[in-house]
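Human: If only I could read backbone structure tokens as easily as an amino acid sequence. Underneath my words sits a plain record pairing an amino acid chain with its backbone structure tokens. Take your time, and here it is.
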Amino acid sequence: MAEKHVSLADQAYKTIRTNILNLTYPPGAQLTESKLASDLNMSRSPVRTAIKMLQADGLLVSDYYKSMTVKVITRKDILEIYQLRELIEGNAFRYIFTSGRYEEYSYRIEEKVVRMCAVAGDLYQWELADTSMHMEIISIFDNERINRIYENNMSELIRMGQYSVRHGMVISKTNENLKKMVLLMRENNYQAAYAVLKEDHFTIGKETALG
């Protein structure tokens, strides 16, 4: 019986988390235990456990009056996350070339870009694939602490990416730009390859996320 309860709580957690990340429950949306239980067709007990887990993740927040909302993404959040990304990914991308592994990583990144192209019709799945592509870039460091920084901010990364697309970033254009970046990597052209990444993800991505 306990195993079933844990399983239901995990299921509730995963479903609610996905609904937050794919913006079904958008930032600032007010939620209640009864609404979530109704949406998931579950009793309140596993939903209550899932809510506690999501509050620990920082995805759900409660105020003094116990009103529960999906965590809002502020302008400051966006600026800080993109600054963090550019600092870490910028150095990782440079290291891919200075370590002489640019050809290897061109194929590793291309594999992620192929996935992005395959799911281009589904914004949420595309954003997951895009996040995976960025994780591939930072994998050059083989640094678990850096990986945890990204994982700890993953929900913001995924939601901000969708903001970017909804406010003007064009998926098809981004996919084509990344294909060009991969080819430039194979030519060992760091400057041109990084210019594509910087313009497409750190400049346009940030500006469109800000709205």
